[in-house]
Amino acid sequence: MRDDMIIRRERPEDAAAVAALHDDAFVRVEGAARSVESSLVDELRGDGDVIDELTFVAELDGEVVGHVLCSAATLGEGASVGLGPIAVTPALQRQGIGAALMASVIASAEQRGDAAIVLLGDPDYYGHFGFRPAVELGIGSPGPWEDRYFQVKTLRAWRPELAGPFRYAPAFERLEA
Fold first, then answer.
1. Mean pLDDT in the chain?
2. What pLDDT, on the 0 to 100 scale, is given for residue 173?
């Protein structure tokens, strides 16, 4: 992690910088003014599904250069955490900013007593943080992607009886519509 970086909880005044960050970090559909990820962040906020205690920004010299959002989800009959989107300024990727954001989410979720964090992403990257295919634990995927991309990190509060079908917040489902 960079010595000059600050990881802190996202604040309302970060919204414009976070939107610009996601628009820079992700490819936009041709003709679209914004990235899908940037729009998703706004939708999750608008729905009230953002978990504030698990949503962070990375700052360098007062500028937002990284962001991770966690939202309310369901796993089986109970509440769960869906991680994503996560973004880092393209020119600053591979410098530990994303890893610092991930570490903040994991540590904070442990403190909150969450049982698991679920995400869709690159198994080679997220495996470094202890994520593994959710199907291995009996967690059902809400989408058509390959099992290896739909991943879970279990925390101390995890118990096998918590397994079941996973559902992201409704904003994710509207992406597919």
1. 94
2. 87
45 C-beta neighbours (distance < 10 Å), count: 18
| CA distance readout (Å), 84 to 44, 117, 161 | 11, 10, 25
Within a 10 A sphere around the Cβ of 107, how many other Cβ atoms? Answer: 11
Place of tokens 């397994």: 163
For residue 94, how far is the Cα from the chain centroid?
Answer: 17
Q: Convert the pLDDT of each residue in 112-156 to its tens digit.
A: 999 999 999 999 999 999 999 999 999 999 988 899 999 999 999
Query: Comparing C-alpha atoms, which of 23, 36, 28, 30 is closest to residue 177?
Result: 36
Residue 2 has pLDDT above 80, yes or no: no
Whole-structure pTM value:
0.94
The DSSP code sequence of 88-133 is: E-GGGTTSSHHHHHHHHHHHHHHHHT--EEEEES-HHHHGGGT-EE
